[in-house]
Amino acid sequence: MFDWLEHMAQWLVYGVMGLNPEDHLAKALDFFIYDSIKILLLLFTVVFLMGVVNSYFPIDRVKNYLSRNKLYGAEYLMASLFGVVTPFCSCSSVPLFIGFVRGGIPLGVTFAFLVTSPLVNEVAIGLFVGLFGVKTTILYVFSGILLGTISGLILQKLRLEKHLTPWAKEVLDNAQRDQERFEAEKQSFKQRLPIIWQEALKILKGVLPYVIIGIAIGGLMHGYIPEGFFEKYMAKENLLAVPIATILAIPMYSNASGILPIVQVLVAKGIPLGTAIAFMMGVVGLSLPEAMLLKKVMTFKLIGIFFGVVMLCIILSGYLFNIIL
Amino acid sequence: MKHSIQILGTGCPKCQNLTKVVKDVVAEHQIDAAVEKVEDIADIMKFNVMITPALVVDGNVVLKGRVPSKDEVLAFLR
User: Fold this and answer.
1) Closest alpha carbon to A164 in A116, A101, A109, A117
2) Which ipTM score applies to this complex?
3) Hey, which of A21, A197, A219, B53 would disulfide with B18, CB 3.0 to 4.6 Å?
């Protein structure tokens, strides 16, 4: 599928720049150009497609659907699925939380959404396809959805309403299920397209420097770390590897898009994929700035329980992947 | 008619961009409008939005979750 790009990179490096194809640095440059453009193209495609889906399923429609319908247990899975198609911005987590609670959506269902939305976001999926291929991406997306669903179910069972802040409790007491069906503005696809396109470009521009730097660092590491280097320290048998990887991941939230290309190299050098996935889920899904914002609606104890449960689920899925892969 | 414009947002980069775009449009076209930033989350929630930033013109939420172009903002004010 990307043969043309490979030829183009070769033509640019060896033809236009006239570098020697036997030279290590020239080869690295060739690979870097090819890899970056491929990843950015795939990233843009995924972000754009998610933008299209989101244009027809805005957050208000999601909330309306979850609030209006009785789903007999499937609501956790639905909330988690909706989390995939909704772009997440940590600064919107409080309005989102209050909006859901106000609509009478159970706390556990709201949590299911709050877990999956950042974990399986459009940028992560786009980078995953480019870096790890379609199969691993599907695996990541499925486990993300499952993880959100299960975390939501557990958190619901814990009956956490008493740990909300007074303001959030007041909203909860006055909660009302939506009665009417949400009607979106009638806009043709042609009217939506320029907006979706612009948004996708903006997202790409925002992550571009991190991704490029990540790929460059990854490329350099690729040349210097010997094959199978990590197998000694992070073998599947080492039970501490997954929890340590998850905990290490939490403070790295701010530039997840730069870290994913580096993790790809680590996997190539022998880190088990389950351990790597646990690490990446921690990087993408657990964010300290989000936790700090949530204290408007949750007590510290509740934030701790929320993060603890999600972390536990991430660690378990890391072990699971290491067993089955 | 004097417009009242409110920008809902807790201070994220997108909210600041929206504020800038709106202020630029108001200044460039000499629109008679009072621009106010609403940063308190409890006040933001009174408008029933679940995604920030949001733009409110004369009491109606006209835009949520993204930063519009200047032309779009101008259209809301005409």
Assistant:
1) A101
2) 0.86
3) B53
Per-residue tokens: A30: 């060739």
d(CA A306, CA A261): 28
pLDDT tens, position by position, A266-304: 888 888 888 998 998 998 888 887 888 888 899 999 999
Distance in angstroms (rounded) separating the CA atoms of residues A138 and A173: 40
Query: Could you give the C-alpha distances from B23 to A166, A193, B18, B28, B35, in angstroms and in order?
Result: 36, 26, 9, 9, 7
Contact A94 B41 (CB under 8 A): yes
Please enumerate in sequence order all residues whose Cβ is within 8 A of that of A247, keeping only pairs 6 or more positions apart, or say none: A282, A311
Cβ atoms A246, A315 nearer than 8 A: yes
Cα separation, A250 vs A285, whole angstroms:
8
Q: Which residue, among A101, A87, A17, has the nearest Cα to A58 in the 3D structure?
A: A87
Lowest mean pLDDT among A32-41, A107-116, A184-193, B18-27: A184-193
CB contact under 8 A, B52 and A293: no
pLDDT band at B46 (very low <50, low <70, confident <90, very high): confident
Spatial separation of the C-alpha atoms in residues B31 and B13, rounded to whole Å: 25
Residue type, A246: T
For testing contact with chain B, the best of A91, A113, A176, A182 (most B CBs within 10 A): A91
**What is the CATH number for B51?**
3.40.30.10
The phi and psi torsions of A309 (rounded to 5 degrees) equal -65, -45
* Interface contact flag, B50 A99, Cβ < 8 Å: yes
| Domain residue limits at B21 | 3-77
pLDDT in tens, A37-69: 999 999 999 999 999 998 888 888 899 999 988
Whether the CB-CB separation of A125 and A46 falls below 8 Å is answered with: yes
B26 included as an active-site residue: no
- Tokens standing for residue A215: 């790929």
B34 touches chain A (CB under 8 A): no
Q: Where do the H-state alpha helices sit in A86-188? A: 93-102, 107-119, 122-132, 134-157, 166-173
